[in-house]
Design brief:
Blueprint lengths: L1 H22 L4 E2 L2 E3 L2 E2 L3 E2 H84 L1
Antiparallel strand pairs: 1-4, 2-3
Helix pairs in contact: 1-2
Length: 128
C-alpha cells in the first residue's frame, strides 16, 4: 500500500514539473556554477529536468547508505538468530540427557531402597 502511495506522489510531482516545463519552454538561461564559470544559454526546461535528476541522484546517494547499513544489520541479526537457535537445540538436547540421567538415578535409588529393606528384614529375623 505504501509503495502505491509513493508512486502516486511521484506521478503528481512529475506532472507538475512537466506542466511547469511546458509553460516555460521559450526562455533560455545561463547558470553561474562558479563565480568564474557560467554555462552557455540553456533552455529553462533542460535546467529544470537536470535539477530534478541531480536532486534524485543526491537523494539516492543519501538513502543508499542507510539501505546498505540496514542490510548489514539484517545479516548480523540473521546470524545471531541462527546461532541462538543452535544454542537452543543444544540446550534442549542436554536437558533431555539430564532428564534421562535423573530417571536412571531415581530407578537406582528405588532399587537400593528395596535392597536395603530386604537386608534390614533379614537382620531383624536373624536377631530373633
Amino acid at each position: 500500500m505504501l509503495n502505491k502511495i509513493k508512486l502516486v506522489i511521484w506521478l503528481i510531482v512529475l506532472l507538475l514539473v512537466a506542466y511547469f516545463v511546458s509553460m516555460n519552454v521559450q526562455p533560455s538561461l545561463s547558470v553561474k556554477l562558479l563565480p568564474s564559470y557560467q554555462t552557455p544559454e540553456i533552455p529553462l526546461a533542460l535546467i529544470i529536468i537536470a535539477s530534478m535528476i541531480l536532486g534524485a541522484v543526491l537523494i539516492l546517494m543519501f538513502t543508499i547508505t542507510d539501505w546498505i547499513s540496514f542490510k548489514i544489520e539484517k545479516m548480523k541479526l540473521k546470524r545471531q538468530i541462527s546461532s541462538l537457535e543452535k544454542q537452543l537445540k543444544n540446550s534442549e538436547a542436554e536437558k533431555e540427557k539430564l532428564k534421562e540421567e535423573i530417571e536412571k538415578l531415581q530407578g537406582e535409588i528405588e532399587i537400593l531402597k528395596a535392597q536395603e529393606k530386604i537386608s534390614v528384614k533379614k537382620e531383624v529375623e536373624g536377631a530373633e
